[in-house]
Amino acid sequence: MKLRERTTDFGSFARRHIGPSEEEMREMLRDVGFENLDALIAAAVPPNIRLDRELNLPEAKSETEALAELHAIAKKNKVARSFIGAGYYDCITPPVIQRNILENPGWYTAYTPYQAELAQGRLEALVNFQTMMTDLTGLDIANASLLDEATAAAEAMSLCHAVASGRNKFFVADNCHPQTIAVIQTRAKPLGIQIKIDNYSQFKFDNAVFGALVQYPATDGAIYDYADFVRRAHDAGALVVVAADILALTLLKPPGEFGADVTVGNTQRFGVPMGFGGPHAAYFATRDQFKRHMPGRLVGVSHDAEGRPAYRLALQTREQHIRRDKATSNICTAQVLLAVIASMYAVYHGPRGLRAIAKRVHRLTSQLADGLQALGFKITHENFFDTIRVEVESSSTLIEHAQKAGCNLRALGARAVGLSFDETTTNRDIELLISIFRGTRVRDFADRRGIGFQPVGQPGVSPGDSAGKMPACPTDKMFVPRSLLRTSKFLTHPIFNTHDTETEMLRYLKKLESRDLSLTTSMIPLGSCTMKLNATAEMFPISWPEISKLHPFAPAEQTAGYMEICRQLEDWLAEITGFAAISLQPNAGSQGEFAGLLAIREYHASRGEAHRNVCLIPTSAHGTNPASAVMAGFKVVPVSCLKDGDIDLADLRAKADEHARDLAALIVTYPSTHGVFEPTIREICDIVHTHGGQVYMDGWRGTNRCCQKSRAVFTERIHSRSRDRPNLVRRRGAWEASADLERLRLPPRRRQGR
What we know:
By secondary structure, this protein is an alpha/beta fold. It contains 23 helices and 20 strands. Strands 2-8-7-6-5-3-4 form a 7-stranded mixed sheet, sandwiched between helices. Helix 6 runs antiparallel to helix 13 and helix 6 runs parallel beside helix 16. The chain is globular.
């Protein structure tokens, strides 16, 4: 073999990011008994599955060339001021967090924290997250985050279904976000759950309803008192899920205080960029009696051998690797990097800072409402936090006019629009919106008297002043029912009250980072779908405004760059996998499994074979496979494996024969969970196809051989792979986890003065 120096371009991406040198590769090959890489591949990969042609892919580019091309594509996106809301808001990522977490390989290259002693920094940050969410929601326990708000709501439905067993109806208020309703409907269908969508105040519970979901505040901004609704649900034996805005909870009564059993939502507006929809960290909080039905990951506070607080993953008996088809959920991880950012946003601002941000957002929204009413527009709802619904002659005409002025509004039917404010909103935005509604030029404010908003930098100027400005709106005016104002304290732990300067925050972040193992410290010799091999150049784009500031519901003409990126990736992955098409929709491997199995289910239904409901799964498969199959409405039938881990072909044939009429699918991991390309894979597929089934191949993010060719590709819109990672701890003694001392909140600490 020739030395790399003679064969590889020094400026190439591969040269900089494939770690082993030629000498190291020769040494490894020698140790395993092969002369070169070709010989190793020949022995490891069966000839009958090798590709016999060159891939039709573009020539590789250097980092500089790739970044230049990507930047040119990103420039095709148009960044407009977003007032769309619907669960996604622009925000300010504090620079100390952006530079030292989001853009820091010490946080974004670490491995999932299976070894707690190597993950103390991140685990503490996740306990911060869990504490933040239990405090804000007024509930007993929260997990370490989920994938997105809609998925969290669907998982909450599953919890309710498990607790109130024997019932099959779930109510969803028509004031929930549309994307949440859509995901719940998709998740409910294969389980035979009936979804009832209606006005929450008119719904009548019966003994078939096991749960209900409401939005707080509603998707169009209205704030409702759900206390009576919750009482009626509980009287009927049903549970109540509240999807709540995290910033609003700093001002509004926590759902736990008016009886909610589960609260879910998105933490994106706590410092995480919109990023065209993700990735973001959702939250999931519930009551203590339901903790063993919670999905995802939980971090507990235990103690080490010397009695000091120590963190570890907790209550894993709920998870897929133990319970398999009886697992709580198919989600076995968390959106750790994003959850860490959101929790550190709360650590940095503290309870007073968060309330100040929320009050400012509400005050600006109130000023806009006053100004629009002064112009003669009707604000539909009297009570709101950051979003108002405005009745207009034509929503499409107004939205078109707004887009020409560089901002996006939300259509709420043909004769109403929604306007949502956030942390980045300024008084200048109010002036812009007022001008749009008046139909005047943006800078034409000659007759602004009576509009009812406070211009930038002009507090308290009277109408008669020579500047001609309006007086400030009352700062204590709130459009929130007094009965729903928050009176309970939150984030009282010292960790949220001692890091409000950059130096304090910086030292805290660096302390936690030093307790984690990442690629900045060592190579991580573990194989998994959550490996963190992100190059620095690959992380650059997440901070570009053209990538980070786009709302997922922005008009198509404003997202041409993102669409081009998606099309390129779909084409390249289709070429690599040999499939007809690729779906980038699933935002995690677990969701890709579910999407692929649903595609198989719908394929059979389209052929008049909806009765096919048996899914064969090898006993060596990862636990998410049987969990996903059950979620997709399949009956799991295990297939035996040989001593070396390969699928037992005789048992596969027997099970396929036994269930021939009802066979829907086989899930096969390839390469297998023990790292081998089974030479019988073609025969395995033929057996299943002969018996009328389809094959879902769960490999690198999972592929599925089915007519719709869905994939579990997790691109996370350029942000790829922002999951868990491990930490390096040199200070702890022998690790000794004690379940009876386990806690799921921060341990008490001596308060440090500010």
